[in-house]
Amino acid sequence: MRNTRWVYKDNSLKNNKDIQTLNLDKDILNLLYNRNITEKEEIKNFLDVNIKNIADPFSLKDVDKAVKRLTQVKENNETVWVYGDYDVDGITSVSLCYLALSELGINVKYYIPLRDEGYGLNMEAIDHIKSEGGTLIITVDCGISSHKEIAHAASLGIDMIVTDHHEINNGNPEALAVINPKREDNDYEFKYLAGVGTAFMMISAFFKTLGKEEEVYKYLDIVAIGTVADIVPLLKENRIFVKEGLEHLKRSRWLGLNMLIKKIFEDHDIRKFNTYDIGFIIAPIFNAVGRLEDAKKAVELFIEKDHRVCSASIKDLLEKNSERKEIQEEIFQKAIEKVENEKLYENSVLIVGEEGFHHGVIGIVASKILDRYYKPTIIMEIKPDEGIATASCRSIEGFNIIEAINNFSDLLIKYGGHSGAAGFSIKIENIEEFSRKLNEYAENAMEDSTLIKPVKVDRPLPFYKISYDFLDKISLLEPFGFGNPSPLFSLDNCQFDGLRLIGKDKKHLMMNIIKNGNEIRNCVWFNSDDVFEDLVNLRNIDIAFKLKLETYKDRYQYKMYVEDIRETIHTSNEVKNIFDLYDIQFPIETVIYTRRKMESPKIRLTFSDQGITVANDRTYLGTLDSQTEFILSSLKEMYNVEFSAAVKDVIMKDENYNVHILIDKDYTFSSYAIKQSELFKDIKNFLIKDFNYNCIQKKTLASVFKDKNNTITIMERGRGIETIIQTIGLYYKNINEKALLVTKENISKKTISSIGIGDKFVEGYDFYIFLNPEKSEIEKYKDKKILIITEDKSFNIDGFSNIVDDYEIPQNIRFVSEEELKDKNIIFSKKLPLDNKIQVIKNLKTYLEVYSTKDILPYL
């Protein structure tokens, strides 16, 4: 198998009651914590992806200056030149500015250099723009480092608005306006907009000034393409741009883009577009023409309004992309052959160069070589006629490639980049010395562990969580990408069958994954043909995987995409599995498929040995999926939980009706008892089953019901307060009277279902419970039937019976955190099944050590 090490992210949740009010699945919260989104407001803002949350564009420095100059351009009928880079970020930035400014009646022309001209502004291009009568240039995705070129433009009488997102290393150039999210003097705080996002903020400000703010959002599909392609963090504005832009893609108003979408996606009319579609299907098509020919052809597709021209342009772009793939694969295979034949894989850095390697794709090839060998990789195009080589570098975590090559800059002509990727040019005669010195440096700089690829797993996932409900909840975190990666889960101690090679070139693996008799079919592992033989010989495996919800024949399917497989290391922790099951957040949603038309929205669930059936009145609709059935059956068996179901939506498809069902825990209590004693017995069995009320609960209930006293109970929050409240609430509800709980604290759903809740006194109730009130709240209501529960030991009111909790903690109890319980022998938690809890309470009398959370306090 591959040389990997699995790293589980530290995602231990804090017991934050404020966050618990968000009612989010615990696994979803863990995923948010893994992304350093840990505070309530942060979480709410992250999940609320809305264009109204886009920051004020004028909070970027110099946007006001740019808008003022654009207003003059519009008034004076000047021509604006938009100057961009040849990658997808640059292409989309140019297209955005051209379309938006043209819509506002401004004359617009654009310039994108050929790859051979190099990145950024150049003198010749500026001279050309001057010769065409240009008086204003807007740079997009470039310009922040072009001090000389901008000074040259100024000398020619050309104003310059720089919109760029790259690092500011030598101060701002002397331009009319410099708009960059990385400026330290911005009021705008987010520093990681793409070039197209930066340009959009300027355009948005201009539209806002003209009273057309709402109209600017139609460009977000273009913004989304550039943002995803440039691999910037999908957070803050980027997250909004991409989320909204993906919605626009389905019905893009830009003719060329709309025709391209229809051409490459057969299901374009029903497809839910995602960042993968942009990053791996759409963006490479635009990138290819910039790599192999002229990026202006991609811009032409965005701005063209003639169907025939667009059709021809799409044909050309797709051909260029196919050519790019062929060139890339040819270079990749040659590089692999050289690495293997010359045993370059024994080196610390893989350096491969040949004449004829196309400079437009060597960066992609370097990434693919790195993925296979997990070593820093440099691919070079050697140019004997010029006596130089140009190189593209990709590096691994823990080895800063730009820092490394900086040590040997005397051997290079020029270089640049960052820790993970770089590029340089070098004289051919220096290549051998450079390679030797770089490898010597890398060998000393890297630990052995650095060369073991980390597989960063968000968290282990129980098999039953692979369900419609969980995948639907994961979609709250979309769009996924850099800075917000698609969650990576693990499943241990699995089996597999149906292993086979798939794909045109048999590069990928497909298999069925089996766990405890449950199966997920047709799981795919891309580019894994090299581990086929190793995998055949394994029996029990652990899988690291990503999940995706797809549809086939109008039914949802759970697709598992494998990222890594290893031989099983250890079996799962049974206590953890039980706790995870207990923590499932309700309601949960599932889907059944039926050809029968529903006569009414009422449905019921029926448990049997054959599964859980769903019926509508007397009409059988179907059975629940195996994962949902497992969850409900397990909770019913272990905790005596009852469930209710309701129809959320019915969607008519060609093949069937998709019935979306919400299933929740049912806290409905009913009793046919006639005597009060029998009613209390039914309530007690409903609330705490085979356990007894503890001493403070008994004393309080006796004071209220037997002695009929207004009562003050002084007790800690963890001693079973809500059980007292529920008992009183259910009693009054069952005798057709009303009780009210007055509190500002968070209360469980079970308590809410048993009693009225309010944050202040309301007339018309037969009994009142005040939880941790101020004494002044109570004085004027002393004539009512009242129970006060408080932690304040000094609380006292004349005429009330005072009861103080007095209990001892057995000496054989050891209090620990929930996480620590998973490695102990005799344990107690509210999350244990009922039978286990009863047995542990009995063990307290044997003086065996019992490890417990504070959950045990109500049982003492």
Automatic annotation (TrEMBL):
Keywords: Exonuclease, Hydrolase, Nuclease
Keyword Translocase recorded: no
Residue ranges annotated for the RecJ OB domain, each copy included: 457-564
Residues of the DDH domain: 80-227
Domain DHHA1: 348-443
InterPro entries: DDH_dom (IPR001667), DHH_sf (IPR038763), DHHA1_dom (IPR003156), RecJ (IPR004610), RecJ_OB (IPR041122), SSDNA_exonuclease_RecJ (IPR051673)
Protein name: Single-stranded-DNA-specific exonuclease RecJ
Taxonomic lineage of the native organism: Bacteria, Fusobacteriati, Fusobacteriota, Fusobacteriia, Fusobacteriales
